[in-house]
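Supplementary Note 3. Input sequence used for the single-chain structure prediction.
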Amino acid sequence: MKEICEYEGSPRQGARSEDSKYLTFKLADEDYGIGLLKVREIIGMMPITKVPKTPLFMKGVINLRGKVIPIVDLRLKFDLTASEHDDRTCIIVVEISGPAGSIQMGLIVDRVSEVLGIKSDDVEPPPSFGTSVDTTYIKGMAKSNSSVKILLDIDRVMSNGDLAVVRSATS
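The predicted structure, written as discrete structure tokens, is reproduced below.
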């Protein structure tokens, strides 16, 4: 299988519905998915310029064809153990919509898996863990073969406070 980090062009080509097409990726041993229409591109790791006084999950910014893009390590954002980057580590550039408009942001993931068509019948609501666990950023849990993929609402992964830090870091 060709490394998807080497993908050239828009992964949105041929996508019929955000609700049915997802770019899937791995973090630690878990599978996640992001609506394909939110994905702008997938790039390999590149040098990241650190920005002082930002949260640990905010790794810094990159210069992508003349545009400053903030970079977030999803492992750290989700309170997972940090890991060394390898040749499969990728940055997924997404467009996030927030109260102050949209912003492009890079998400560091362990590896990109594939684009999957997921039927709405195969998606269940996120589980309820009680009031102390926030799962508003989870769109649903997709049953795929013998595994479960966590479908993210990427607009909600970053809180309004996180987006304010990101905006100030790129201004």
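The domain at 4-170 is CATH 2.40.50.180 (OB fold (Dihydrolipoamide Acetyltransferase, E2P)). The longest helix spans residues 160-170.
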